[in-house]
Amino acid sequence: MEKRNKLIILIFFAAIILATGLYILLKPFFPSTTEQPPELPEQVLPVQTPVTLPPTREENNVTALPQDLKELQDLASAFVARIGSGSSGSGFQGYDDVLINATPKFQAQLLDEQAAMQKAHPAAGPMFGITTRVISNKASSVVSGAASVTFVVSVQQAEDAGNPGAPTAVKYKEATIVFQKQSDGTYLINDVTWKDLEL
């Protein structure tokens, strides 16, 4: 008889646990109160506030560049960032990366600049790194189809001489990039002139 009482008590507690579990699971489906916002009268219209749009570029007297010139502007930024960034360990690889975008005359100048950087900071010496970040790029002399197109790119350069005791040197510079139109109608970079900026 004692086993039977224990079994009844066990079934009773199992039923209570099962009922509690079902209550918890089903409670979200049967809300106890139905609080809803009051109904709005049918004649009420929502209030519309006037929307003021920011001024367009034309209103600021700034005109967007045509697509072909925008591509040259983007190339000027990328070009300056590549030749202005590198490390002694990589042999200042950025110069090699941009040769395809330069005229033959300027390619020779870029290779000379790369050789000078490699001589000043040899791979076998202490690690030297430079990083160039473009801050702004302004069109200086841009007309679609012109013989030359010029952009002025402002950059921040950080130089790390590989000496943990020396802080990283940060400089601000401006590069004037001149594109020259080729006989096939494409543009290649023919000159880059650097100027230090004083802040």
Q: Regions with pLDDT < 50 over 5+ consecutive residues?
A: 56-62
CATH domain class name of the domain at 67-196 = Alpha Beta
β-strand amount: 25-35%
Radius of gyration: 35 Å
List SSEs in N-to-C order: HHEHHEEEE
Measured as a percent range, the helix fraction is 25-40%
What is the annotated CATH architecture of the domain at 67-196? Roll
Widest sheet: strand ordering: 1-2-3-4-5
Structural class determined from secondary elements = alpha+beta
Identify the overall geometry.
Answer: elongated
CATH superfamily of the domain at 67-196: VirB8 protein
CA distance, first residue to last residue:
97 Å
Folded structure, characterized:
With 199 residues, the chain is of the alpha+beta class. It is built from 4 helices and 5 strands, in the order H-H-E-H-H-E-E-E-E. It has helices spanning 2-26, 67-83, 94-98, 104-120; strands spanning 86-87, 129-141, 148-160, 169-181, 187-196. It has a 5-stranded antiparallel sheet with strand order 1-2-3-4-5, with helices on one face. The longest helix has 25 residues, at 2-26.
